[in-house]
Amino acid sequence: MHLAVVPFLPGRRPTDEDRWPGFGSSDRAALVTDGRRPNTAVVLVETYDLPETASLEATITIDGRSAGRARVSAPHSAEARQRVVLHPDVDFAGVDLSLAAGFLRQAQVEVRAMDHGNLVAADTASLDVCDVRLLGSLYRRITDQLVEPDMVRQARAAGVADPGVAYHPWYPVLLIGGEKVANYVRALVADIVGKEDHLTDPVWLLRVGIYLELLTCLGVIEAVKDDVGDLLEPRERAALEESAHFADIRARIDPGAWRAVWERREVSFARFGTPRLGPVSGLNLLRKREATLQFLRTHHEDLKHAIELAGPNSFNAQETWQRVFRDAERAVLSVTAVGLPELRFLPAAAREAVLWRRRGPAAAHGVYPTACDQYRASMNEVADWAQRHGLMEHAGAECIPREVSLLWNLMASPARVAVLQRQDGLGPDVTIGEPVVTETPATREIEDLLSGVPIFRMLTRDQLHDLAEGARPLFFGPTQRFVVQGHRGTSLFVVAEGAIEVRRREPDGREWLVDTMGPG
């Protein structure tokens, strides 16, 4: 008698089972959302040689406490993959997923085969559970409860009217941080809730994002509490200092580093004889630049700690890291006008120069390319550090080369921007952040492709048709890997469009190009 949970496999979803039986995989995460779209988490179960009278049942527990029953979607059959279906918006509505719980819990789904009240087989699956509506809330809290009151205090001390929080030196980087969270939440919802496959393993991104927000924002909160009071509620403070959920985070928070960042918050108000940009001096843009650079230097260490807490990822860390970087670029492009209101007081030509300052791709040093080049350098250094410590793995000299950057391609190769957008499951324009459904090629198109592949020429047209119906179209962008040296393969790939490189890595880390393959 056999019952086993089908494990999660990178790049696969439970819905793959509908079209390609035997090729689906269980979910690794369940997200609580706003309920506006169908939302299920699915655990696939294989059963063999069970009594005909046996039935399946499933229960959910979190921290050893019952969280209800999951639904087995179909009656037991002798040999078939069954679906255990969770409805996270309902099943976890009463579960504490707040900051006091670290935004992340783990649910255990136990599946049992019962026959006349007797247990005949069982297995368990683990799923990360998160309420994505709460992600980014700490960035908003710091803006609302720390930065905005500090703006009021500084204006009062200077004897001027409060110009608004957008002129505070910390405002742009917090705004970008919050927007970056919103971008990756959209990606997580598309892949985990929508069962799309733009992220090979969305759970690693979920964990890294949560731990990064906690480390950064709790570090700030700890750094300023003696000056401005505690931004945590009593229950949150007790959890941070006493709960096992926060033990590893407590050990990695660095209030001293964040106190140094907090010192870079002085607003440069307009003075007689200094260039004005509305209610502030032109020097305020420099204040924002200095604060942002200091913020990113401290954030750099938090990135390392977030990867440690998320756990090793040797298969798709490079692709996920590139996606995180592009979401940061999208955030910079979408909110800079809000975060730098001073620019409204500049002539159009001067504003363009501040943002881009184009002198060719290699010498563009405006706000956009500077911010993204610095963040790319930081993320590459973190990736190299993580690779040395066995936490990440990447191919090539850089984890995030320039050619996968939206901003660099906007200046150097605009046609590639649409390719990068499509790779991330988005529309062709970088200003469109909503996921789009990519078209699936017709079966006849796949048949024609396969008929030109030598190893398939022995097949009849009917056999090619059957093979084409089971083919799974995949789209890959620049430097994205789908076969990784040292990892077991489960598929045969045929190049339909474009070209791929085959590279071999030597034991000393050097890589060499084996071949370049085109269609067929």
From TrEMBL:
It comes from the Bacteria. Coiled coil: none annotated. Residues 455-520 form the Cyclic nucleotide-binding domain. This is Cyclic nucleotide-binding domain-containing protein. It comes from Nocardioides antri. The lineage of its organism: Bacteria, Bacillati, Actinomycetota, Actinomycetes, Propionibacteriales.
